[in-house]
Specification:
Length: 140
């Protein structure tokens, strides 16, 4: 059985709802899933999971949340090489540049992306929830 971590930061609840849908998808595919906020996760935990879904909304000028999520993720970067991951998050403006930049960073770090990232504008609708479920299944 695959052990999956779904690690997220959410200010409004939109990315949290996406994280729950990712978790549900991975569980439906037979994985053991641990859902946690970025404050509950750190780089020392990376090897405890077969795959990790990282979720963070766009903040400021299309960047990752800078106070909690970004420092946690930066600490994880040295451990991304060869690690199966997936990315998701919500946004309220812009065109998804933060996610494209984040994906490029992960590729440059040697991460193995299980599937395309999932983004949604505002609260996740049915289409976004379905895509998040599929993202979770792709990690298994």
């Amino acid at each position: 059985m695959s052990k999956i971590a779904v690690v997220y930061w959410s200010g409004t609840g939109n990315t949290e709802a996406m994280a729950q849908a990712v978790s549900d998808g991975a569980k439906a595919a037979g994985a053991e899933v641990v859902l946690m906020t970025s404050a509950e996760f750190d780089a020392s935990m990376m090897d405890s999971f077969d795959a990790i879904a990282f979720g963070c909304p766009s903040m400021g000028v299309e960047v990752l949340e800078e106070e909690e999520f970004s420092p946690m993720f930066s600490a994880c970067e040295p451990n991304l090489s060869g690690k199966k991951i997936a990315l998701f998050g919500s946004y309220g403006w812009g065109d998804g540049e933060w996610m494209r930049n984040w994906e490029e960073t992960c590729r440059n770090d040697g991460a193995v992306l299980a599937c395309d990232f999932v983004i949604c504008n505002g609260a996740p609708d049915e289409e976004a929830i379905t895509a998040c479920n599929a993202l979770g299944k792709a990690l298994v």
